[in-house]
Design a protein that fits this description.
Blueprint lengths: L1 E2 L2 E4 L16 H14 L8 H19 L8 E4 L2 E4 L2 H10 L3 E8 L2 E8 L10 H14 L4 H7 L3 H4 L6 E2 L13 H13 L3 E2 L1
Helix pairs in contact: 2-4, 2-5
């Protein structure tokens, strides 16, 4: 956790949520990928990075608002922002099964691999609310490039991890805006009382 520019390392182990076992399990991620790929076909910019960010935003906003993500799968910190740990294996499965293809395209001097759904997603795994979170995330990133989506995802939740570290769903509660000085003082006092140390 970051307090006033300091990284706080907790010496105890808190229960945090890295994965939520939801009905459909890993299949939810496959169907979410197909859903986003199908809905995002008219986006000017749409590649792997943006696909990851759309699902990440939906999962973490959903967790923030109702303590339940859309896919429930595990995220990690990568160079380009939060990413599903299972994204590449699942994408490879979808490609191998012919349910998805990737069209290489050059956009602004950068190469992107546009995911194109070749099958309709199975929506019965999702509630109407789940789909609303995916749709909101699609809308949010619609006009952004992959680089812009990546940059936006580099908030405190991402900054508080090392490359390759899992990102707990509770990071959805982290805010990027500066805390008031009074709040920082209270947090520093609480950290001292709990014997937390800054790195």
């Amino acid at each position: 956790m970051i307090l006033g520019g300091m990284t706080v390392v907790d010496q105890r182990h808190f229960n945090v949520t890295y994965r939520v076992d939801l009905s459909g399990g890993q299949r939810r991620l496959k169907e979410a990928i197909l859903y986003v790929a199908q809905k995002g076909q008219q986006m000017k910019f749409f590649g792997r990075i943006k696909l990851n960010k759309i699902i990440w935003r939906a999962d973490f906003r959903s967790f923030y608002e109702r303590r339940q993500p859309v896919t429930g799968r595990t995220y990690q910190k990568l160079q380009w922002g939060p990413a599903l740990t299972e994204m590449m294996p699942i994408m490879n499965d979808l490609l191998r099964e012919g349910l998805l293809i990737e069209e290489p395209q050059s956009r602004g001097g950068k190469k992107e691999f546009r995911p194109v759904a070749k099958a309709d997603p199975v929506l019965r795994l999702f509630s109407a609310e789940d789909l609303e979170f995916l749709d909101e995330s699609l809308h949010h990133y619609w006009d952004k490039t992959g680089s812009e989506a990546s940059d936006e995802s580099h908030g405190v939740a991402w900054k508080s991890r090392n490359i390759g570290d899992a990102i707990p769903y509770e990071a959805a509660y982290f805010e990027d805006k500066a805390l008031p000085k009074a709040t920082l003082k209270r947090l520093a006092e609480r950290a001292k009382k709990l014997q937390l140390r800054s790195a």
